[in-house]
Design a protein that fits this description.
7 strands, about 280 residues, 9 helices
Length: about 280
């Protein structure tokens, strides 16, 4: 297969952990030039050092995606080091699930969610737009979620933020037709990314699980206890209910690894036996 990732300049936000870190690793392995961005300077430096140690062409920049000036500086650094921007992966995000009744505990995290999940993606688009339009080619990949598919209890703000990502993505696709490709990636539950650490009220997962909540929680506990049925976590089983983060990162690379004239518009990755009703 032709390698369309080779030599592309790719910016990845939220690069210090989770999907972002994996995308950076896989992009470097495919021969891309990678600009890693994250608000956590220490973890970011660790990732950059790991990638440069294996021969990767990598630079890092501590970046708060909610700050437009920092995002513009990130894009400028990519151009300064590598001469262009081929792909922007807007990956940074948080998931503060909570009911409206939890507002006293959740309000600050909800505001942060809006700043990171909505404004961060918008800032990512804005920061690379002029460069990509001048190049007359580019690719924006936005990490959304199945939570953006439909409103449910427990995810009013988080779901709205991901629905906004879907709207931002499709609007960009229509406006930048023929110059900027746009891909929206919608992961399902992938516990190993650590995204669940931002949940305010654990009971708020009921919206995405519905009638499957009790079974899901039992399965998660069995995984934690090391007693899970192997069929539940095996990629070779139709009962696979929990995806490894690698599978999502692979789809980001898959979307990048297409000819200029081909866009992978939307990707939803599921375990064949997942518990999610969205």
């Amino acid at each position: 297969m032709t390698n369309h990732v080779q030599d592309k300049t790719i910016i990845v936000t939220g690069a210090a952990s989770g999907f972002g870190r994996l995308v950076c690793q896989k992009a470097v392995a495919a021969g891309a030039k990678v600009v890693c961005a994250d608000i956590n300077e220490s973890q970011l430096n660790t990732v950059v050092n790991e990638l440069t140690d294996v021969g990767g062409q990598v630079v890092g920049q501590t970046t708060d995606v909610s700050d437009l000036s920092q995002m513009r500086a990130l894009a400028a650094k990519a151009v300064e080091h590598f001469g262009r921007i081929d792909v922007m992966v807007n990956n940074a995000g948080i998931m503060p699930l909570a009911f409206y009744a939890d507002h006293a505990d959740a309000s600050d995290k909800w505001s942060q969610c809006i700043d990171i999940n909505i404004k961060g993606v918008l800032h990512g688009i804005m920061s690379v737009y002029d460069q990509m339009m001048t190049q007359e080619e580019g690719h924006v990949i936005n990490i959304s979620s199945i939570y953006g598919n439909f409103p449910v209890a427990g995810a009013g703000v988080y779901g709205a933020s991901k629905a906004a990502v879907n709207f931002l993505s499709e609007s960009l696709r229509v406006e930048a037709r023929g110059k900027i490709k746009v891909t929206t990636v919608k992961p399902t539950g992938v516990p190993a990314t650590g995204l669940s650490a931002g949940i305010v009220n654990p009971e708020a997962v009921i919206g995405i699980l519905g009638q499957n909540q009790a079974e899901f929680q039992s399965t998660m506990q069995s995984i934690a206890d090391g007693q899970v049925d192997p069929k539940v976590v095996s990629q070779d089983s139709m009962g696979c209910a929990v995806l490894e983060p690698d599978y999502i990162a692979d789809q980001v690379i898959y979307a990048i690894n297409q000819p200029k004239g081909v866009t992978v518009g939307d990707i939803t990755m599921r375990g064949s036996g997942d518990y999610f009703v969205l």
